[in-house]
Amino acid sequence: MDYLYTASRYNPKMIFCSNPKAQYLAYKEEIDIAIQRVLSGGNFIFGENVNAFENEFSDYIGTSSCVSVGSGTDALCIGLRALDIGLDDEVIVPSHTATATVAAIKMAGAIPVFADVDPDFWTLDPFSIEKLITSKSKAIVVVHLYGHPADMDSIKKIAQQNNLKLIEDCAQAPGATYKNSRVGSIGDLGCFSFYPTKNLGALGDGGAITTSDSSLADALKKLRQYGWDKDRISQFSGYNSRLDEIQAAVLRIKLKYLEADNTKRKFLANQYGKALSSLPVKPSGKKIGCSHVYHLYVIDVDCRDALVDYLWSKGVMVGIHYPVAVHQMPAFAEYFKGVLPQTERIVHRILSLPIYPELLQADQELVINHLKGFFMK
After folding, report:
1. pLDDT by residue, tens only, the chain of 377 residues
2. What is the pTM for the complete model shown?
3. Angstrom distance (rounded) from CA 364 to CA 353
4. Among 250, 271, 94, which residue's Cα sits nearest to residue 167?
5. N or C, where is the chain less crowded by C-beta within 10 Å?
């Protein structure tokens, strides 16, 4: 199936799966003013906006520290390094995730150990974790996939019982809560991406790590900049991974509206749920006691590929997150030789429908009508 054609191949008026330009336009006046202030001020690296954003974001998440970095991938890699996880250490991670999650483990020098996901929420399955633990296991990376928190009570208990570090990949879930705690405040570290399509998106790359461990925060700050101490003497090998002032200024504007934007996503998800309840599709579940922030609205459906082609032909730019499990990719296949039943089932069935705060009601209704049209033809 070749569904990733350019929009011009299909309907010239596409309904996008996500639309970062629409969010820029929603806050254009404030963003443009903030960017101009940075440009006029002349301080482009580690200025007042980076410092302010780190404070504001840690307050929002509920941790004592936030350390900003250049990307979500860097956040995970630097987070692992700060926890002293590296060469030949094993890190348990779901295979059903963005490639970046696993790439970061490799960047840190560690070995990814692939776990399955549960059948209802498609997040890391605690039962899959336990049989993967060995004497070389050092950490679990739990992914709050699509905006829904994973089963943190069960996973945290496994981590504590086996002396494993717990890293939260919160790239798709800023603002989501698990039993009244925001994701990113529950494990040892929370790692965030500010890629433009995310719920909290910059106008370029960016990332952050949250923690309430002051010694970890200090290590993270050194690692993001060559391992430097306050005198710019490298105490260990580090990276060049900094959030710049312009992106921090943009994120400060968008952070003010994150709760309202997540509420809009929840409303759109509810509309999808009601409208599609009579169709042969299954949305991902929502666990009691959790808030889902719907970075993506994903359904499980038969004849997925035919439905994708049909919707694209109607001008609906749906996506697949993700069409190939990471353990099945050539770059990572050597690390897993078994079977992950749930992961390998859903990659052939999942489909992401358009969802973003600025999605027009008329456009969502059009998506729904096209879905109904496919099943009724």
Report:
1. 333 334 444 455 899 999 999 999 999 999 999 999 999 999 999 999 999 999 999 999 999 999 999 999 999 999 999 999 999 999 999 999 999 999 999 999 999 999 999 999 999 999 999 999 999 999 999 999 999 999 999 999 999 999 999 999 999 999 999 999 999 999 999 999 999 999 999 999 999 999 999 999 999 999 999 999 999 999 999 999 999 999 999 999 999 999 999 999 999 999 999 999 999 999 998 999 999 999 999 999 999 999 999 999 999 999 999 999 999 999 999 999 889 999 999 999 999 999 999 999 999 999 999 999 999 87
2. 0.96
3. 9
4. 94
5. C
